[in-house]
Amino acid sequence: MNQMNRMNPANPMPLLNSTDIKIGVIGAGSWGTALANLLGTKGYPIDFWVFEAEVRSQISTFRENRVFLPGVSLSERLNPTGDLRQAVEGKDLVLMVVPSHLMRTISQRMSPDVPASAVIVSASKGIENQTLLTMSGVLAQTLPHIPETRIAVLSGPSFAKEVAMQSPTVITAASKNAESATLVQQVFATPAFRVYTHDDVIGVELGGSVKNVIAIAAGMIDGLGLGLNTRAALITRGLAEIRRLGLKLGANPHTFAGLAGVGDLVLTCTGDLSRNHAVGKQIGEGRRLSDILSETRTIAEGVKTAESVYNLSTRLGVEMPISHAVYHILYKGLSPREAVRQLMTRDLKHEIDDFSEN
Which tens digit of pLDDT belongs to each residue from 79-127? Predict the structure, then answer.
């Protein structure tokens, strides 16, 4: 099957079941490596852009990413490269799995070499500090030749290690174009990785981004030893904040009852593999954020997203007291215990009224 058959005006999307689809994966952290390996194991040849030379060497020599996903044997179909052009040129689908604060820089670099016919999939979760855009918004700006209908996002309750170990996992692929969402669904789905489609891109992205901020708060609750009642309340009220922000930005409220909403929120707030929960727990135990971050090479996206959520919700006039408390703890010196006191002594309200759009 040649490129002409895969992509032409009569057949605008790659054939769904063909392992001949050309895929580039950008970013080799734990999540990027897990997804690249899923695709490689499924049979797709993957040009895998890996920034760190040591990680490229490990994958080439040992078929293992010993820095970010140790203990997982990687598919021989993964071709690690430090050449961004090689990773995206001529591709039918490009998967972006870079830290959210690097998305703009990297997508701008690769823009001249990405085919206009490619489907771009973001699996990165965050809101850009400077522009307050989600990752699909950043991609729309930096890849202006890619139609919005060919941008999709992948989100849901999914720890990289468990995906790599083929634990049954269920996520959502969202795009404003049903054909693009279906393509992503078909490319990624395996017997251990079930993919649903969705059309609410902003809702799916907000669920995947803001839940990291709430997970830091949940970690703080656990670090303070405040118990399960407190954590359950925090998760529930955190979901209310995510939904409230989503409504203001035009999201479908039902999205937040799904995989990218409550599913991902519960996982990240309670799972031992959650980096955001781990950061919050250490802060609750009295450690400084700068010391915590200096000891790891992995990214807790909620740290940067907390600033974006604070600024975005303030600009829009959306009430998000838990998220604002996390911001003030991380950046303004508020103590976690004092934040809890302030949250618990706020004016008393009707619960359901708090779900309405501001």
Answer: 999 999 999 999 999 999 999 999 999 999 999 999 999 999 999 999 9
Q: Of the listed 22, 91, 125, 211, which one is catalytic? A: 211
Given a cut of 70, whether residue 213 has pLDDT beyond it is yes
Residue from 44, 65, 42 nearest 55 by CA: 65
Residue 2 pLDDT exceeds 50:
no
pTM over 0.90: yes
CATH classification code of 203-355: 1.10.1040.10
Say whether pLDDT at 358 is over 80.
no
Domain pair 3-199 / 203-355, same fold:
no
Angle at 223 between CA 222 and CA 228, to 5 degrees: 15
pLDDT at 296: 85
3-state per-residue secondary structure call for the chain = CCHHHHCECCECCCCCCCCCCCEEEECCCHHHHHHHHHHHHHCCCEEEECCCHHHHHHHHHHCCECCCECCCCCCCCEEEECCHHHHHCCCCEEEECCCHHHHHHHHHHHHHHCCCCCEEEECCCCECCCCCCEHHHHHHHHCCCCCHHHEEEEECCCCHHHHHCCCCEEEEEEECCHHHHHHHHHHHCECCEEEEEECCHHHHHHHHHHHHHHHHHHHHHHHHCCCHHHHHHHHHHHHHHHHHHHHHCCCCHHHHHCHHHHHHHHHHHHCCCCHHHHHHHHHHCCCCHHHHHHCCCCCCHHHHHHHHHHHHHHHHCCCCHHHHHHHHHHHHCCCHHHHHHHHHCCCCCCCHHHHCCC
How is the chain split into domains, by residue range? Answer: 3-199, 203-355
Is 211 marked active-site?
Answer: yes
Matching CATH number, 3-199, of 3.30.1330.10, 3.40.50.720, 2.70.40.10, 3.40.640.10 = 3.40.50.720
